[in-house]
Amino acid sequence: MSLEKTADEYLADIPMWTRKKNSLEDIRAFLERMDNPDEKRKIIHVAGTNGKGSVCAYITSMLMAGGYHTGAFISPHLTDVRERFLFDGEPVGKELFEDSFREIRDLSERMMGEGYCHPSYFEFLFYMGIKLFDQAESGFTVLETGLGGRLDTTNVIRHPLAVVITSISLDHTQYLGDTVEKIAYQKAGIIKPGVPVIYEREDPRTAAVIEKEAAASHSAVYPVDRQGYVIDGWEKHGIRARLERLDGSYLPVLIPSQAEYQVMNALAAMRTVEVLAQQNGDIQLAEEALKRGLETMRWPARMEEAAPGLYLDGAHNPGGMEAFIKTAARLCETGRKRAFLLFSSVSDKAHDTMIREIAAGLPLDAVAVAHIQSDRGLEAEVLEAEFKAVSGCRIYGFGTTKEALMALLAWQDEDHLLFCVGSLYLMGEIKTILGGMSDD
C-alpha cells in the first residue's frame, strides 16, 4: 500500500485489499487509541431502512436554526466522499479532510503492527468523522448507521443523547434477515440503557420489536405515526402541514418536498429535538427555530426537483419505491401529465419487484434503463428485459447513465414529467452529469 496515494485514491482502494470487518471490540480499541473522541460529543444516533439521511438533515437544520454547531456523519455520498462529513450542513473542507485522513492512515498502520486488521472502508471513514467532529468541537454530532445497527460500526457509541429509528422495510436481507421483524431487531440494537428512543410506529410488527428492546433497556419511547400530522395541501414548493408537538399543540410548517414521507421524517426529527430539549436544560429551541429549520432543510436525491419537471429519487428497496411511486403518481395526476422514466439498479437489490411496482403504479410512456458504473451494476439488457415483461410502453437500454439521461432530457415535453429512480449510485452519476452541464 503506497502512502504516496492521495486520500481519495487510498480510500477507493481499501475494498480491494481488506475484506474483514473488525469486531466492535476492535473498533473500540481504535477509538481508545484516539483518546475516545466520541465520549466528548453530544451524539444523536439514527438507524432505519428508509429516511435516515433525511431525518439527520432535519435534525441538523433545526439545531443550526437554534444557534448550535452540528456535525453529521452520513452515507453514502453522491459525488464526493467529503459529503459524508457535514459541518453545519456543508461538506468538510479539503484541508481538514486530508489532515484527518493522514492521521487515521497512520493510526491504522500502527494498529496493524500490533496485530489488528486494517479498517474496512466504512470503519476508516467513521474514524475520520469522529476525529473531524472532535477537532471542530461541534456541539452536536448526528450519527447515521451504515448497515443495520446491532453490529454496525457506529454501534460502538456508548452514550448517545437519543436514539432514532426511522421506517423499516425489507433491504439487505442477506445480512439483516428476511422479515421486517428480524431487520427491526438489528436496527433496535443501537438502543442504549436509559437513552430515549424516537421511532416510527406505522408498522405494528416492527414497533413491537423496538418497544420490547427499549423496555429491556429501561428507555423511554416516543413513537411517531400518521396520527401525528395533518396535511393541509400541496404547493409548488412543498407540503403545507401541521406537526403535533410533545405538548399536544401543532406546529404549522411548509415541508420543502413533494413527498409525504418527508412529513413523517420531519415529525420524527422534530420529536427528537423536543425530547433533547425536555431532558437537557442546556438545550433550548424556540418554536421559530423548529419551524425555520424544517422549512430550510435540503437533502439531495430524495424526490428532488433537480430541474423543472425532472425529479431524482434514490429509492432502492421496496419500501422506498412504494413511497416514490405514491409521490410520482400524485404529481402526474395533479399536473395531468404522464411519465418518462430513467431506471437503474445494483444486482443485490429487488430490482424485479421494483420494476413490477413501477409499471403498475405510474402512467409510463417510455423508460430508459442504464448500466451504472459499479461492479454491482446490472447490465442494461437485464433491466430492459424485465421492464418489457411487465410494461407495454417503449423501453430503451443504454450502456451508460449519461446516454440514458441525454435521451430522457430529449424526450421532455409539456405532457410529461421526468423521473430518475432506482439507486443512489445512479443519483450520484446523474448529479455529476448535471453539474458538468451547468458548468458548460
Average per-residue pLDDT, rounded, comes to: 92
Query: pLDDT below 50 for ≥5 consecutive residues: which ranges?
Result: none
The helix/strand class is: alpha/beta
Task: Tell the overall outline.
Answer: globular
Counting DSSP E segments of at least 2 residues, the number of strands comes to 17
Task: Name the strands of the widest sheet in spatial order.
Answer: 4-3-2-5-1-6-7-8
Rg (CA only): 22 Å
The number of helical runs is 15
Task: Classify the helix fraction into a percent range.
Answer: 40-55%
Fraction in beta strands: 15-25%
Taking the alpha carbons of the first and last residues, their distance comes to: 37 Å
Describe the main β-sheet briefly: 8 strands, mixed
Explained architecture:
This protein is of the alpha/beta class and 440 residues long. The protein contains 15 helices and 17 strands. The chain has helices at 7-17, 24-33, 52-65, 94-113, 121-136, 173-176, 180-187, 204-216, 261-279, 287-296, 318-335, 351-361, 380-390, 401-411, 424-439, and strands spanning 42-47, 70-73, 85-87, 90-91, 140-144, 162-165, 197-200, 221-224, 229-235, 238-244, 250-255, 302-307, 310-313, 338-343, 364-370, 394-398, 416-421. An eight-stranded mixed sheet has the order 4-3-2-5-1-6-7-8, sandwiched between helices. Helix 13 (380-390) links the parallel strand 15 (364-370) and strand 16. The radius of gyration is 22 Å and the shape is globular. The two termini are 37 Å apart. The model has no long low-confidence stretch (mean pLDDT 92).
